[in-house]
Design brief:
The structure is a homodimer of 119-residue chains. By secondary structure, the first copy, chain A, is mainly α. The first copy, chain A, is built from 5 helices and 2 strands. Chain A has a two-stranded antiparallel ribbon with strand order 1-2. In chain A, a hairpin with a 4-residue loop joins strand 1 and strand 2. Chain A starts with 13 loop residues before the first helix and ends with a helix. The N terminus of chain A is likely disordered. At the A-B interface, helix 1, helix 2 and helix 5 of A face helix 1, helix 2 and helix 5 of B. The structure holds a DNA duplex (30 and 30 nucleotides).
DNA sequence: TTCTTGTGCAACCATTCAGTTGCAAGTCAG
DNA sequence: CTGACTTGCAACTGAATGGTTGCACAAGAA
């Protein structure tokens, strides 16, 4: 368990680590397509997802491993197959982080611009 | 100009391309640190930024090229030096995109779960 | 002009990474 | 038990990438 006790944006050690993984995972187009397929199905095995994308099952498994480590999907095994399921909360948390970062940029930049104009 | 006319989540050709570049740019820790340094300065040249990070100036230039292509920084040349400046709007647009994606996931997943429970 | 500083270009190296194939092992149905 | 199907592990290849060094060129300062 990653334990994403989201509260405010004061801590940057745990969050930054998670953000790193999420951004890295989301940066790959194949991985985004895979997530798309998984969201469309709601729940699916690696073999089933391999039928949706033009890559081998092993590639899918690797991507799912990365996505799991990033907290974007969760898996649990049913019988002989492993069901993967997307996690929207991690994506939501990352979206919040990015939005907060954008706000911080804006405030800092406007402050700098204001200081420059006063000079 | 990329023309990021953000409205809803129905278009996926222009936006997805921009998002791909932004996520790819933000995925690298060095690049994020570079952006951090640039935001702290508000405006800086590649050589100045090279003093902030433990990498060579050439690496900085490469990163700035990527960030420029992603729309996260803009540059304009002053005399013999090139001033780089962060663009908060692109980051903000990407944050919005990600937030919308998270919402879409949630709604689709809850719909699927509801359908499964009714069955 | 001469010196210094900053940029631009290019070659090069090492690592990471996406993707493949092959094979062993577990699990359900007949 | 036997056969069909799915996961898991490992080795390998090719391309992308982060980073370096070296050198040539432009622009301000002495």
């Amino acid at each position: 368990m990653t334990g994403p006790d989201s509260s405010d944006a004061s801590d940057s050690s745990d969050v930054n680590d998670s953000v790193d993984a999420v951004l890295g995972a989301l940066a790959d187009p194949t991985r985004r397509a895979l997530l798309d397929a998984l969201v469309a199905r709601g729940e699916a095995s690696a073999s089933a997802l391999a039928g949706d994308l033009p890559v081998s099952r092993q590639a899918i498994v690797k991507h799912l491993g990365l996505l799991t480590e990033a907290g974007l999907v969760s898996s649990d095994r049913v019988g002989r197959e492993v069901r993967y399921r997307p996690r929207s909360d991690t994506l939501d948390a990352t979206a919040h982080w990015m939005s907060a970062l954008a706000s911080e940029w804006e405030s800092r930049l406007s402050a700098i611009k204001r200081a420059a104009e006063r000079d």
